[in-house]
């Protein structure tokens, strides 16, 4: 696309208009978007074309993209798919939005998601669920549901997302796209509405790993506005040697056979190129899930306390006093899943003796982190499923919350350890995409991307489009 | 009342606003103003997606305080979120240092009346952010919120419950106030809330080691009110206990008008704070090097400086103490003392003459602080009797009013030394001639009459003659018999 723009085969305005047309045509069926900013996008495209004309451009100048609706884009609504922020207009740009803007990228709009990134189906959105372009009766996954589905359906060439426990990698798997969650601290969280600050990491959903690399090159790096960003020398030029890749067989035994055989093929593909696999044992997924649960819920209690109806966002109409204002605003403004997590969070912050469940979870987190660090003494990367199933029906009965939460069991460990992970499409089961993820030690982002890119050079799963949206 | 057998136990909790340029976690100006909601950044309003960035200057100032009270400085600086809902707390949590306070085990030394010190143990001090202010009654039945104060860096200083009198506790508050202003880490404006004090008070039978039920008095912002509040509270509790009742654990406020404390809320109503480490602020380390650098750069502290003033300048402890009540004052004294060697004179000049004049003019003494070389010159003339003290003050006053140099002021005031000396002789002559009897009596040994004679001379001069100069003249010219 960048080459086409450079060769002047196509202008950014044409490209932008093409995607805007596709959004207008297909989004009613998919519900990927909460906000589309057509006029603004065309204006930006025009500017990008001008930049290209005078030679003042980068590789990404003029290429459209979409942002998950928890990234603040100045003067554009940022709703987090919640009634609480349904009319909230962000007064500033998130750092990664600004960095991509500065490259001349064109923002088409804001994508649907689980409310405040809490969910793995897209169904907790105040604006209704995004559906899966491969089968509209199935979910797109979540919480970055709109971003994944938009890229899969060709409504945008690239999207930003956020990953707290798998929110980029799982929808990427369900929709057959590439989802990259960098090392915690590589991308700035400034301007990304927080769910669980110590786990949240912005990332991207793209068609290819090469695209992810282009975006990451722009987004990553220290941001004075986010104290958790970390300076590391960028090891861009990386030659892949023969690697040892960890294979946690217990993970693969934990999933249905058809899915498992697709995933096992990835191992064979990579083995054929000369990489070695080594059986490893990773911390128990149940323990990881429980730890993830306590920490994410505990942190979300504090992060969501600011939604009190006082300064911005939704405020309940009929209130008589301050306590009543808080209570009614929060009861009416938050959806069921958000409330469930806040309640659970308050429980882990107050119960348990002699120390709260939250404090215990932090200790276990440290152990999990140490265990992963040890594992990376033996292996360079880890291969793991992105999700234990393919996309579930939209109308599935969700009464078993814990079964839903168990969807995250292969992804949360990377968040607990702050590890970079990338999910790539690797096959289909019942015509639905299947994804695999590669996890690396902290700051191995570029090497990890290189390995995933190598896999994509050997396969074509990432190039397939859902036929309905060709 | 058998109050002798009861012993009060008092601990203080102080909140000191640090005088940084910007707030603790946002770039908004840290400045007091009456205009609401002008010193704000998106972070202060808790706009979604915003993140805190620690103000390193605030951290430095807090460490300086720690070094001044000989506290241990934590090498790892961590912050926690303290959660509670309050309309003027935008994030719904306050960032503080609950798990690992920056400073522990410091000491404030309070001089005892006789000699030596009472040591007040500062159990901990930590950084936290201030909240906004709720303002009632401006718009009908609504409550307004002023966010200017949100995020102001606070140093919370907690003493252990170790003080046994309201006097000691009030003095502790005063000393901390003096110290933070001395260090230049706080403005110390009590009326603007730069320094706020809570007191925990309980009483117990003398000799008993367990503490009684404590009552907290919130937000007393004056040394005197604090002492009064504590005195009232101690006797209230003693009365309760003497009459067989119990003290209820609660928070009270002090009303300075009727000098009483009143129930504000009972402790049971206090919410669970659900502390968690703040994930937005990764722990940072403070190196020993940095701490040593700060230690070396600390100014000479009030106590040592006071002792040095006694030793070097031969001042009385009372003078030395007064001169070291603020660093500015002590600096001013030393700047003059470097150029004029009669140190007692300098101290007198600053502490009596200038203060007196300032009081009369209802201005701050600092406003009369002219440049030290000029003061040295003026005091030199006084020493050489070329100026009387009254005239010297007239010069200062004139300089202040008309913004002129001392020479200019002397010229305008028409102060002419030699003629003034002659004039004094003239006036004395007038008086001695018309009071020959009195003079005789004085010369014959009635010393008391000198005051009368001097008074007459001043009267004749219509106040222009300086009594001390007149006295000196009498001594020289008319020596009484012994």
Describe the protein's architecture and organization:
The complex is a heterodimer of chains A (470) and B (482). By secondary structure, chain A is an alpha+beta fold. Chain A has 16 helices and 13 strands. An 8-stranded mixed beta sheet of chain A has the order 6-8-7-12-13-11-9-10, with helices on both faces. Chain A has a 3-stranded mixed beta sheet with strand order 1-3-2. In chain A, helix 4 (95-102) links the parallel strand 2 and strand 3. In chain A, helix 5 packs parallel to helix 6 and helix 10 (285-303) crosses helix 13. The longest helix of chain A is centred in the last third of the chain and has 22 residues, at 357-378. The radius of gyration of chain A is 21 Å and the shape is globular. The two termini of chain A are 17 Å apart. Chain B is of the alpha+beta class and 482 residues long. Chain B is built from 15 helices and 16 strands. Chain B has helices at residues 56-68, 166-182, 223-242, 288-297, 302-313, 317-323, 327-337, 343-361, 372-383, 389-402, 406-412, 417-434, 436-443, 449-460, 467-477; strands at 6-17, 72-73, 76-77, 80-83, 93-96, 103-111, 117-129, 133-136, 143-146, 153-159, 195-205, 215-220, 250-255, 260-266, 276-277, 284-285. Chain B has a 9-stranded mixed beta sheet with strand order 2-6-7-10-1-11-12-13-14. In chain B, strand 13 and strand 14 form a beta hairpin. The longest helix of chain B has 20 residues, at 223-242. The model of chain B has no long low-confidence stretch (mean pLDDT 89). Chains A and B meet through helix 10 and helix 12 of A and strand 15 of B.
